[in-house]
C-alpha cells in the first residue's frame, strides 16, 4: 500500500497514454482532473491486488465515447462520482474501492478522481492492460463477469441503469445513449468482488504506467536510453520513425475512425507505414506488410522526446516513433482473439503475435 501524490499522477498519465495505444482520451484533461481532486481531498491510497479482500465490491468509472469529442466537450467533474454512487446504491452493497477499466489518458485518471472524492482506495489493476473501443473488450468479460448493472450519465445530470443479457448488448445499448448525450458520457460498470479482480484483472498496470512516465520525463540520459528502457520494460519493438504525411478521421456511431500515413525518417528513410484506428490503433502496415495488429499494442510517441501521442492529437507534419508492444496473455487465448482480434474489426487475416512477426522467439 502507498499513497499517490500529484507527481505520481503526472507519471501515471504519461504511461497510461502510451498503453492506451492511441486511444483512451486526452491525458492532459484526465491528469488535471485527478490533480485537482488530490489537491482538494488529499493523496489517494493505492492497493495491490494481494491487499484486497475477496468478498469486497469494487467498481471502475470511465468515460465512454469518441475521444476527439472529449477534447471539446469537457466533463463537468461530478459525473463520475454520480455514476459510481448511483450504481452502488442500486446494488445495495457498500463499494470498497475503485480501479481503471482500461489504461488510457483519461480513463486511468477518472478512478483517481473518484477515489479522492469518495475517500476510497484505488486498486493497482485494470481490465485491458491497454485501451479498447468497446465495453465487452475486457479481461473481466473473458472471465465471465457481467458488464451490468451499469450506469450511463452525462454532464447535464441524465442517468440510466442498464441490465443486459450479454456484454455486447451492454455496448450496443450504452453506445446509443452516449451518442444521444453528445458522443461522450460517463459510465460505471463491471462491479466485481475482490476475488473476481484477482482472477481477471491485469495486475500492476498503474505502477507500470508510472514507471513509463518516469522514463519519459528523464531527458538527461538521452532518447536512446529512454527508448531502450521503454522497450525493456514493455518487452516491445521499435517499429518505425517518420513524419505524418496524411491523416483522415471521422466520428461515427460514437467512435473515431481513421487512417494515418507516415513517411519514414532516419533508419526508415524511403519506407512508409500506414496505421488504421477505431479510437485505438488497430493495425500497422510497413511497406504494405502487416507488422502489428490487435490485440497487440501500436503506440505512438513524439520522435524527439517520446511523449505518447493519441490519435486525436496526431496532425500533418508531426514526427513520431511507432512502438509495438505485446498484449497480455489473456488476450492471446481463443476467446481473447475472438473478442478483439483483427477479424472482429473486419480485417481478413488471422492474428499473429508481434514476436512472431518480428521473428522473435516467444517467452
Task: Describe the protein in words.
The protein is an alpha+beta fold and 363 residues long. It has 2 domains: 2-205, CV3147-like fold; 225-357, Beta Barrel (CV3147-like). It has helices at residues 6-19, 27-41, 67-70, 79-91, 110-118, 139-142, 167-180, 194-200, 205-217, 223-234, 334-340, 354-357, and strands spanning 2-4, 44-47, 57-59, 61-65, 95-98, 122-123, 125-126, 150-153, 159-162, 184-188, 192-193, 202-203, 237-252, 255-264, 272-278, 280-286, 289-293, 297-302, 308-309, 319-325. The strands form 5 sheets. The chain has an 8-stranded antiparallel β-sheet with strand order 17-16-15-14-13-20-18-19. InterPro entries: S-Me-THD-like_C, S-Me-THD_C_sf, S-Me-THD_N, S-Me-THD_N_sf. Residues 7-163 form the S-Me-THD N-terminal domain. It holds the Pfam family S-Me-THD_N.
